[in-house]
């Protein structure tokens, strides 16, 4: 099967959505390619919604990397929605608003005091 052949039951993205200049457009494109009950799994750097909640050792490292790598890359793509690596749940929900009917959940590794990644699952709208 080639990419243009049809729909997919499962789409994955690892540590990349925040690097894209138009993550809203990416979400729309993923929806086009998902089967009616397909699932999109997005693994992104962990972030809270408020800046002060991200001022931890890992959060500071992520802000540094985002400033030097993620955000400039996204801005270079001339999109309207560059997010950077510290996009919390509210921002990522905004990215996919109207694109998916059901947020299936978030998984964060339970054995860490300060998680480094989060995994979000979205199910495609039916109809």
What order do the helices and strands come in, and which of them pair?
Layout: E1 8-14, H1 23-33, E2 34-45, H2 57-76, H3 89-96, E3 100-107, E4 117-124
Gyration radius over CA: 15 Å
Mean pLDDT: 79
Assembly category = single chain
Characterize the biggest β-sheet.
4 strands, mixed
Helical proportion, percent range: 25-40%
Strand sequence of the main sheet, in spatial order? 1-2-4-3
Number of strands: 4
Distance between the termini: 24 Å
CATH superfamily membership:
Vaccinia Virus protein VP39
- CATH top level class name: Alpha Beta
CATH topology: Rossmann fold
Order of helices and strands: EHEHHEE
Count up the helices. 3
Low-confidence stretches: none
How large is the share of residues in beta strands? 25-35%
Architecture, according to CATH?
A: 3-Layer(aba) Sandwich
GO molecular function, one term: methyltransferase activity
Protein name: Class I SAM-dependent methyltransferase
Organism: Halomarina salina
Keywords: Methyltransferase, Transferase
General description of the model:
With 127 residues, this protein is an alpha+beta fold. The protein has one domain: 3-Layer(aba) Sandwich (Rossmann fold). It is 31% helix and 28% strand. Strand 1, helix 1 and strand 2 form a beta-alpha-beta unit. The longest helix has 20 residues. It comes from Halomarina salina. Keywords: Methyltransferase, Transferase. This is Class I SAM-dependent methyltransferase. One of its GO terms (molecular function) is methyltransferase activity.
